[in-house]
Amino acid sequence: MKRKLILTLKTILFLILLGGVLCTVMLVTERKTSYMKNKDFFEEAKKDHLDVLFLGSSHVINGINPIDLYEDYGITSYNLGGHGSLLKESYWQLIRALDYCKPDYVVVDCFMMDRNYDYIDEMYEETPEEFRQAAISQLHLNMDAYPLSKLKIAAVKDLVHDPDIQKQYLFDFMVYHNRWNELEQKDFQRLTGTSEYNMLMGAEMKHELEGSISYDYEYDTAARLPEHTVCEEYLMKIIDECQRDGIGILVTYLPFAAEPQDIQSANSAGDIAAQYGVPYINMLQMEDIIDPKADLSDPGHLSSTGAKKVTDCIGKWLSENTDLKDHRGDAEFSKWDELSAGYDKEVRDREISYRLLTTQLNMLTLGDVSAALYLTEDSPALQDPWFRHLVSNLTGTDKIEEAGRDHQQYFLLMDRASGNIYEAVGYEPVENMDTSMGQMTYIPIEKKFRLLYLTSDENNNFLYDDDHLEDDVQLITYDNNSGEMLSHIYCESSHNYEIEE
Amino acid sequence: MQLISLQFLIFLPVMAFIYFLIPAKLRYLWLFLMSWAFYLSLDLKGFPMLLFTSLSTYIGARVMEKQEGNKRKAILACVIGANLLILALSKYAGISILSAVGMSFFMFMAIGYMVDVYRGNIYAEKNFFILSLFVSFFPQVTSGPIERAGHMFRQFREPHDFSYDKMRDGLLQMMWGYFMKMIIADRCAILVSAIYADPVKYAGTATLVASILYTFEIYCDFGGYSNIAIGCAKVLGFDLMKNFDAPYLSGNVQEFWRRWHISLSSWFKDYLYIPLGGNRKGTARKYINILIVFILSGLWHGANYTFAIWGLLHGLYQVIGHILMPAREKLCAAFKVETTSFSHRVLKILITFMLVNLAWIFFRVQDFGSAVYMVTHILKPEPWFITKGTLYNLGLDRTNVLLLFSSIALLIGVDIANKKGIVISEKIKNQGIWLRWLIYIAAVTFIVTCGIWGPGYDAAGFIYQNF
After folding, report:
1. Residue B440: its chain A contacts at CB < 8 A?
2. In Å, how far are A312, A326, A337, B100 from A329, measured between CA atoms?
3. What pLDDT is attached to residue B256?
4. Is 80 exceeded by the pLDDT of residue B459?
5. CB atoms within 10 A of CB A112
6. What is the ipTM score, two decimals?
7. What DSSP string describes B1-12?
């Protein structure tokens, strides 16, 4: 009897140790994207810090920045958008999230409301297999971080048809154990809770621009989806759920280079919102809300500057139409201030230096640093309408168009502290420019030689460097207040605006 | 539910727990029910075949036992004939409605039982549930080992209590089986499938590597399965016969067959080779009997003539081996080769391995032409297949290939130890508790982490399950 008891105890102890080791391995091998995306959600939800939840697809992930919303309006929110998430997934995302918090407002975006299929692993009959696989993989972002529960099982069963595929969301180690040979430091840091995670309350900002994106559709207000879709059904469920729980809801359609079915979806979403008597912001119809050449990172997704404009639009609506509290200055929300400072620094760093000149120029519109830009008369950038557009965004004038048309060298100085903007085309000098660096003078001498110096120190020419004779673009940034020079970028614009390290 | 599945890892402890809780006399009924449930979960449409084999052998043996002379023989022939006919129609005529998972195995066990009753070695089983449990016992129903009725009936009838040592031994054996299957076999399968899918695209070294990896794949797949089956039977307190015994360390092909798929080899020996006359009717007849047995053994695996060529090759290896034996002995004597020396034994093992390896090519290929291409190109040296990294672009990256080769080295090491009579599991059991537990936990963690399983891999299927 005694032996039996000892054996039983030994077995139990062994199983506990084995279980502990296996749990550790599962944590280490787990793909971290879902953990990184949702870590702050669980923490902030627990503290009841989340007043607004954003739901939708990657359009929401890249298009709404809770940190900007906090900084500008003091509203605390979390971006629960999922890559490739249809409204059906957004519905389940909401239901799961409501298990952890009760927000005052939910903002749901309706992109892809035209999709009319039940299961992400089946889609339409003609859907290519790689699309199905991508959707199966993307759903992990929404699912993995949530512990196994009846709700999670119900969500998985509603979203995925194949029982074999369902299993990978309920026991994700079956997928992730294969990561054993690609483990990185951050995978092991998961054990100590020190691994990196999303610092934008679920949002992901895209700073880079793909190129000039056309955005010239004619908005047809009469267009409607030809049939009632599964996603429409789930938008209604989301609204129902919020109304039942006393949560305010705002329906949106964020801007991008839309196709005809998107316009149909946008109008149909408006019909549903009207039917339920809930507010709707259709940004596809708001022509001036973004500048597609600078605010879209690709045809479908907003860049960080676009996200700032869209977030501002929603922030303005929320502050004007709701009683949401302004949490700025509240010591309990100091973490939000820290995250804001971190994001501001990240943005400023990109304004000072980035691997793509076009991205850096676009970021400079945010105004955190001052800059001087010079282009030689034969610069290919001058003949690139998109580049000229980005410069025009900075100056608010069309002077660079003149330089491009006449193949003349171009100079710009933008001093944020004084608000002064100086431009020169051809051999036109600009003397005694007031800047935070001091009074400066620009004098073009010849094709490959020009002067930019402090009026008080003529010997120090900022725009000449023997090592960079081939570079046709120079960009100097300096601190708005102290005038300290922060970077001097040289670029051969014919090389896709890439900056050499 | 496969032996390699999460469901099975839940099924086994639950059913074992209940098995030891219920009264000893009724345990066989629980096993019987669970075995049928296991089979139904595996192959619902094949279940009628399992039922037919159980019923036909149960009734046939009971009736046959009461008869004398030719009637007895006729009943034996009828039952065996009916089962073999179904097997043949399913395998060779491709009638899918008659096919069932593991039918070659459970039918051979049933046939063995009929012959044993006919010979008077055992009595016909009166209890249908015992007989049916023998045919459908869940660890072995899909791929053996092909047990003997006498050995199993006794165990089913004799109640045995829970044994901690047997459970531990069984779990250790299962773990080794999972290692062979999930770490080695399924990794080999990725590379082998890539090359065998279009062997003409590759040449020389790639062909050689693929053939050698297949040689290990089939051993680890089937040997792994056998270890899991024997191990989980042991957890329940049952001893199943050994099915593999370091086969690739054999010094000749005859020895190989004493170590490879032992339950089938001994079945063929007991129920075919000896009835054909064995070696009692002269040398020529012995050779013919060997060829018949091996060709039939090849065809047992499937309808494709490549299986028959595989069997024929093994038969020829042995016949030629016998014929050349005097000459070989003379040569060894003339050159004063020490046949007991280490180097000579290693050479014999390597030659046997390569002969077996050559035969496996015919076993694996889809058509004869591919086999001929592979055999004729196998020695063309193209080492850049490895040095240029092509090997790492066939579905397994460099780390995985390294893990595979390290695991094969471990397998060989363990087989060498086993052949020398050193049982690694015993050595581990003799260690102090912390080291022992460390080894167990590390092994489980290694297998579940680095094993090939989960979505994207068909790791759940065993090669021999299809035969």
Report:
1. 14, 18
2. 20, 9, 8, 73
3. 95
4. no
5. 21
6. 0.84
7. --SSSHHHHHHH
**How far from B121 is each of B107, B115, B158, CA to CA, in Å?**
19, 9, 19
Q: Give backbone dihedrals phi and psi of B31, rounded to 5 degrees, phi first.
A: -60, -40
Helix (H, G, I), strand (E, B) or coil at A412: strand
- 3-state DSSP percent of chain B in helix, strand and coil, to 5: 75, 0, 25
Strand order in the sheet with A52-55: A77-79, A52-55, A105-109, A248-253, A280-282
Q: In chain B, what percentage of residues exceed pLDDT 70?
A: 97
Round to whole Å and give the CA distance between A275 and A269.
Answer: 10
Please give the single-letter amino acid code of residue A467.
Answer: D
Q: What is the pLDDT of residue B464?
A: 64
Alpha-carbon distances, residue A297 vs A47, A63, A205, B75 (angstroms):
34, 10, 10, 81
Tokens of B161: 């209590």
Q: What digits encode the pLDDT tens for the residues B171-197? A: 999 999 999 999 999 999 999 999 888
In the three-class reduction of DSSP (H, G, I as helix; E, B as strand; rest coil), residue A460 is classed as coil
Question: What value does the mean pLDDT take over residues A297-326?
Answer: 96
Residue A450 in tokens: 């020009």
Count CB atoms within 10 A of the CB of residue A49. 20
What type of residue is B414?
Answer: V
- Per DSSP, the three-state class of B190 is helix
Residue of A22, A175, A178 lying closest to B445 (CB–CB): A22
Tens of pLDDT, residue by residue over A429-445, are 999 999 999 999 999 99
Within 8 A of A135 by CB-CB distance, chain B residues are none
Homologous superfamily of the A32-162+189-344 domain (CATH):
SGNH hydrolase (3.40.50.1110)
The pLDDT of residue A467 is above 60: yes
Nearest C-alpha in B relative to A7: B164
Q: Which residue has the higher pLDDT, B454 or B17?
A: B17
With contact defined as beta carbons under 8 Å apart, do B159 and B27 qualify? yes
Tokens standing for A323?
């009683």
* Per-residue confidence band for B372, with pLDDT thresholds at 50, 70 and 90: confident
> From residue B25, how far is each of A71, A133, B28, B33, B154 by CA, in Å?
76, 52, 7, 14, 13
What does B280-322 look like in DSSP terms, one character per residue?
TT-HHHHHHHHHHHHHHHHHHH-SSHHHHHHHHHHHHHHHHHH
Measure in Å the smallest separation between the Cα of A29 and chain B Cα atoms: 8
How confident is the model over B260-280, as pLDDT tens digits?
Answer: 999 999 999 999 988 888 788
3-class SS string, A180-192: HHHCCHHHHHCCC
A17 to B6: CB separation less than 8 angstroms, yes or no:
no
CA distance B453 to chain A (A): 7
- The full set of domain ranges for chain A reads 32-162+189-344, 354-495
Contact state of A29 with B450 under an 8 Å Cβ cutoff: no
**How far lies B276's CA from each of A326, B45, B271, B292, B320, in Å?**
95, 36, 9, 9, 20
DSSP string, A55-68: ESSHHHHHH--HHH
In three-state form (DSSP H/G/I as H, E/B as E, the rest C), the secondary structure along A324-338 is CCCCCCCHHHHHHHH
A478 pairs with which residues across the strands? A370, A485
B120 vs B379, more confident: B120
Residues A39 and A198 sit within 8 Å (Cβ to Cβ): yes
Mean pLDDT of the B279-299 span:
89
> Please, what is the average pLDDT of chain A?
93
